[in-house]
Amino acid sequence: KENCRPDGRELGEFRATTVNIGSITTADGSALVKLGNTTVICGVKAELAAPAADSANKGYIVPNVELPSLCSTMFRSGPPGEEAQAASQFIADVIENSQIIAKEDLCIANGKLAWVLYCDIICLDYDGNILDASSFALLAALKNVQLPSVTINEETGSSEVNLKQKNPLIIRQHPVATSFAIFDDTLLIVDPTAEEEHLATGTVTIVTDDEGRLCSVHKPGGSPLTGAKLQDCITRAITRHKEVKKLIDKVIKSIKPK
């Protein structure tokens, strides 16, 4: 009623968002993202492999979201739980639907050699809204990736890697996720904390790209949304996209070698 939440935010207000790029030196690209207390780190490892027979001109992107027991008392150690699996599937869908990277760009030699990008997203501190933080960390880490140039020796057929010459990935879209929690079927709050997620009657995550197009709407059950409310969410997601894009561009610019 008073447009105020337990942490003092207004209903439509996001938590402070910070991103740090290149935080893992052993990865080919990495990023650490904080959304309030929710902290997620993403590391990208690139390996060479033969492309699949049915898509000889494409590489692979393999995302994996981990919610270890250290990030919250809600999770147990052991094989990935339901939420981690759902988050991994969500990220895989975002990569596929938004065409963040064209898989053809990862192909080095048609039918012979392609890059595989293993994107490990690990939550260090869980305080709600894992999907926004994970997709943001993935995007920032991919923008940080530098891959060495690889050529195939025609005579021997073996691949030769030139570590001195590195190229960034071609990022074709910047998908950004915006999550809302639904209360009493009518009230929408943005960027919910773990406590708010627990009390909510449902959640919805909207993913938009640079042109303001929808990449995906993720709504796992819960209370329904009217068309008007969904439209409202989409409009706010587009505004949020601009903010996140601005933040990423600023960080990338600040670490570019002068």
From TrEMBL:
Q: Which Gene3D superfamilies has this protein been placed in? A: GHMP Kinase, N-terminal domain
Residue ranges of domain Exoribonuclease phosphorolytic in the record = 13-148, 175-238
Q: Name one GO cellular component term.
A: cytoplasmic exosome (RNase complex)
Q: Is RNA-binding included in the keywords of this UniProt record? A: yes
**Where this protein primarily resides, as one coarse class?**
cytoplasm
For this UniProt entry, the molecular function terms from Gene Ontology, in alphabetical order, are: mRNA 3'-UTR AU-rich region binding
Which CDD domains did the record assign?
RNase_PH_RRP43
Alphabetized UniProt keyword annotations: Acetylation, Cytoplasm, Exosome, Nucleus, RNA-binding, rRNA processing
Provide an example Pfam family for this protein: RNase_PH_C
InterPro entries in the cross-refs: ExoRNase_PH_dom1, ExoRNase_PH_dom2, ExoRNase_PH_dom2_sf, Exosome_comp_Rrp42_subfam, PNPase/RNase_PH_dom_sf, Ribosomal_Su5_D2-typ_SF, Rrp43
Does the record bear Ribosomal protein in its keywords?
Answer: no
Localization, per the record, is: Cytoplasm; Nucleus, Nucleolus
Q: Name one GO biological process term.
A: exonucleolytic trimming to generate mature 3'-end of 5.8S rRNA from tricistronic rRNA transcript (SSU-rRNA, 5.8S rRNA, LSU-rRNA)
| Record-stated family | Belongs to the RNase PH family.
- Name-wise, this protein is Exosome complex component RRP43
Q: Which organism is it from?
A: Pterocles gutturalis
